[in-house]
Amino acid sequence: MRDTPLSRALRAAIVGAFVFSAAAHAQDAAPEKKATDLDNVVVTARSGTDTRTKSETSYSITTIDEDRLRMQAPTSVTEAVKSVPGFWVESSGGEASGNIRARGIPVDGYGSVNLLEDGIPVQHDPALGYLNADQAFRLDETIERVEVVRGGPSSIFYSNAPAGAINFIPRQVGDTAEGLVKYTVGNYSLNRLDFWYGTPIGGGWKLGVGGFWRVDDGVRRPGFHADDGGQLRATLSKQLEHGDVSFDVKHMDDKVALYLGIPMYTDSHGDIRPAPGFNGNYGTLAGPETENLDMREAGGGTYHFDNSEGTHVKRTQVSFKFNHDLGDDWKLAEAMRYSTTDTQRNGVFPNAVGTGQSIIDQDSARRLGLVPGATALQLRYVDNPVQVFNTNGQNGNGLVVTGGIRGVTMPVNEFINDTRVLRKFEFGEQSHDVTLGYYHANFEQDFDRYSSTVLLDVRDNARLLDLVGVDANGNVVGSLTDHGYYGYGYEWEHASGKSNTNAVYLSDEWQVTPELRIDGGARWEKVTVQGYTEGKATVDLGGSPAAAKVLTGNGQFTHYDQSFDKTGWTLGANWQFSPRQGLFARWTSTFRLPNLSTYITSPTATPVLQTMDLGEAGWKYSDRLVDMYATAFYTKYNNVGFSNYVFDRNTNTSTPQTGYADTKTYGLELEGTVYPVKWFDVQFNATLQQPKYKGLRYTEVVNNAPVLRDYEDNQLIRVPRVSYRIVPGVNLLDNRLRLQFSYEYEGKRYVDTANSVRLPAYHVVNFSARYDATQQLSLYLYADNLFNSLGLTEGNPRAGELASNDVGATTFIARPILGRSFRAAAMYRF
């Protein structure tokens, strides 16, 4: 079905009709549920002396319990929240480096939501430029459940969380010893061991230990281990006479592949396909020839690039939580986290793709004279110099990629502290549950980057090419490249900085009547960033044209010292007019302050304080037949900045491209589960929205004349207007066997703000099964992307995201989802 307004409306109507018709079944046909979903206790984005359930909550929240999490078996943090409406998630880059776009806020990575572990941010800024929070966190069996808040008061209790917070909640040790061991294998050479064990150890203390180890070759096999490593954690806790205390230590040493775009083309029917000779579901340009490379640097040194490192994170994290009853109904809640994180992030980035002949023609016109005695240029293989690249169809395509060999080193030391004082005040039949909080975060970060360009043929595990000059007899007389390097040092950065944040916040939950609750809050926050960035110089290293224009440091440092502050607020109400249903509404005025990433490689940047207005109103209903939530939302995002680097192959440079605009998004979120009969249920979530740019206009010079670009009301990049996920499941053999499918649909999206390059709608089908062989032993089977969908999640950011250079191109770079894969697991509880 074509993705038209009519088809979207029909799909929405079908989803709605199915939900409500299923809910209309007789209640005696449904299974007996001990409690409804509205009875679940909420711990995220709220604070108070009393517990609060979902039925009493005045904002949108999705809970993913232990069983649901295991049946989904997400391969990444980003995959774990694909069942959350209002979130568009992109996990095609592998286990880390995902993207979440929430409720019409058009920023990449985790720039609009914060990632929490046990209620404490994994890192203060979850979008720390080349270090998203999902790179510093791994999901394993020490995590029991997930709570996801969309909008609401998340920005009052957490920094850098304007669109929500994702809270991974660890297991708690009970009064008796218990544990589990889980072993998983996959058809991409996956071997993974998870374990957790918790036990009382005397004196009221309890100890929990767990973690995972994993190795695999990757769904897109680069020819070496794609993912390798794991983590260990230990938690010591005690229930005190007037509170509780816990200490948690976790160490992670894990490296994961960074999957990037692949060459694609548009066929004669207008359909997008992988380049001939390239496997779109399983192929990757990275391979043995680009696994270990040495790049020449200024001063005679070399930069060793090891692509088997991928994104390698070594992190030690220490957390402390303390809750204490101060007496006279006053309570203290303290949460503290210190972490050290060392990240090496290596990748083979496809900067541009073109025919081999076009590359020869371009360089013949510009640089043939740099090879004395040459009358023509040829492409030849580095590992076999006598093999000439056939420009008429090598590998079935005749294409060549100009690839970026990029290495980024980024150590970060961080301290986070959150202190809250709480008290509940009673006034007759009314009450105010008040929290006063103080938040502090301090981190230091270094940043070093070095990149060079290489020429690669287009095939799985691409081979390096040299661009050589030949004489009239076809003999090689020289080369424009150096063992595949087209240009050394096209990127270079050396910078260091530190950030200091202080915030004060206040919240009040006012119980007006037993049915009506009003809650509000405000947060004032100030951030100070300081640091330096070394300036750049271009040097000629000699010996090859590839080393003629190498970027390096010039020994001159630009320093910065900036402070910013802002106040945000929220006000919401919840009317639980029935034990089974209620209404809520909320308005939030929030912000995201400039941060260290704004300056660390751009010390003279003009800071933009981004402000947002978020509105939502929803209905929730839960009984034995159905859990149903419907939320209408509105997002206005002010001064969103677009800053990306456009690669120019002719000059071997990346040029910054910047723009600013506002956005407005109206939307509807649906989620829930239907239980029409005891042995069958359907989970669902859907997002229908109109995400638009407002005021996105700028002027650029074309052929020495100014040209106005007007992208008013264009669709936000990479955000679909329609997306949904339906998960039907059956429970057989007295619930010992569960089988479920998931059907995911993502509507049409665009690569750039100009809406000039389209990403087609796509769908994905997954399957999972659980069989409880005994009370202790459970067996699992998973099939991801069962029908090998080739859904594209992004185009080529290096072609520009304001107005893509790929417009009209028949061959381009794009990143599809991972191909079909299978996993099986056995879990033993004791």
Automatic annotation (TrEMBL):
Record Pfam families: Plug, TonB_dep_Rec_b-barrel
Transmembrane helix in keyword set: no
Domain TonB-dependent receptor plug: 54-165
TM stretches of this protein: none
Keyword flag Metal-binding: no
Superkingdom classification of source: Bacteria
Gene3D superfamilies, A to Z: TonB-dependent receptor, beta-barrel domain, TonB-dependent receptor, plug domain
Compartmental location: Cell outer membrane
Keywords: Cell outer membrane, Ion transport, Iron, Iron transport, Membrane, Signal, TonB box, Transmembrane, Transmembrane beta strand, Transport
Membrane topology: Multi-pass membrane protein
A GO molecular-function annotation: siderophore uptake transmembrane transporter activity
InterPro entries: Beta-barrel_TonB, Beta-barrel_TonB_sf, Plug_dom, Plug_dom_sf, TonB-dep_rcpt-like
Family note: Belongs to the TonB-dependent receptor family.
Annotated protein name in UniProt: Cyclic nucleotide-binding protein
Native source organism of the sequence: Luteibacter yeojuensis
Organism taxonomic ancestry: Bacteria, Pseudomonadati, Pseudomonadota, Gammaproteobacteria, Lysobacterales
